[in-house]
Amino acid sequence: MSPDQWIEQIRAGDQAAFRQFYNAYADAAIRTASAITRNREMAKDAVQETFIRVYRQINNYNPNLPFDPWFYRILTNECLRLLKKDSPLSKFELPDPETNPSLTEESFDYLSDLYDVIQSMDDIHRIPLILKYVKGFSEKEIADILGLNQNTVKSRLFIGRKKLREQLQPDEEEEESK
Amino acid sequence: MSKFDERIKNDLAKRTDKDVTDLKDEIWNEINQELFERRRTKMKRKKRWIPAVIIAAAALVLAFTLQTDPGLALIKGIKDMFAPEKEIIQSIEGQDEPTKVQLNEGKDSEYIIYVDQTRYKMVKGAEADIITTIEPLPEKYPEVSMEIKQYPQDKPEELVKQIEAELKMDFPKLRAIETVSEPVEGYWLHGLTESKWDGKVVDVYVISNGKDGSYVITERYFLEAAEGHGARFRHMLESFEIVE
């Protein structure tokens, strides 16, 4: 079923359609929130609140515009709101590489895991990368979601991807360049 | 997609798999509870105690101030219990927007509502009060307004059915009557004429007036203004309180 059909049915108060819509959208939404917040509970709250807002405010959605950027704008803003709200504490909750067994026991491969490289970046580079690679959004869609100029997004993605390339092993870089 | 892009995508998926598995059902249960189960079992009570607390507080202040002559001048009405202005956080597309709103009394001071007076004005009429844009919109735009009207003799459960029948003439795809707890506690009707930018939207809330009658709040706007006027009307309505 297309988003248009779901929206029409959700507007009409169809709870079964809303459940189907949740099943279709939840996986990517959880991945996105989990990657943005880096916190399981915060991701859960952000996704939950987003779906509730979508159900209650579906009438605020303009069907002449694409649905996914609207949905992800709400989700991203909710993630950022929770991060901001929790900021005095969140820095203490990040794992300490010296003491966290899950990090110290990992192999060298883990250190080259691109997820960790993304998470080491600042938000302005990290979040566009997450939106691009979790959901496959275009530069224009990411610009719409984050309320940025498309060229700004292009530049931030370029810098983010450059940092990721720099973390790859030399042999992988060579393979990539072939 | 290049191998490089593929690897980034896979790494992100791999590291978020566990949260998807762990959280998907849990989140749905919470959403289901919030949106559907709670609504079936009970309606939110938040609005019920507020008038009682205000009346009790007003009575205490009144009892105290009536003991002195200057005190008599201090109490002009129960509306004095509300701040003349406050800042609310409006959520527009999930983005928090701080907005200053001003206290307005309804017809015969029987209710109060905080109005964003940078954008809207409240026009008091003999039958109803209307909140609308400060400057009239150009003719090409459909009506944008929020009307608040009291029906002292009509109970909400009967009145909502009557309004539903009337609205169906202009809004053939009118959504079925729903019971809501926000922005006010009562019945909600929603209609849209057509999915065009200027499609007319109507939201009607039918709530108890605390006695044997009802208040009917009718919001009118158009589809393209849903995220603007529609969202702002909703936030203003959240401040609606019956004071008599």
TrEMBL record, chain A:
Protein name: RNA polymerase sigma factor
Residues covered by the RNA polymerase sigma-70 region domain: 21-86
Family from the record: Belongs to the sigma-70 factor family. ECF subfamily.
Organism expressing this protein natively: Sporosarcina highlanderae
Annotated RNA polymerase sigma factor 70 region 4 type domain residues: 113-164
A Pfam family this chain is assigned to: Sigma70_r2
Assigned keywords, A-Z: Sigma factor, Transcription, Transcription regulation
Automatic annotation (TrEMBL), chain B:
Entry protein name: DUF4367 domain-containing protein
Transmembrane helix listed as a keyword: yes
Membrane-spanning segments: 49-66
Alphabetical UniProt keywords: Membrane, Transmembrane, Transmembrane helix
Organism field: Sporosarcina highlanderae
Domain of life, per lineage: Bacteria
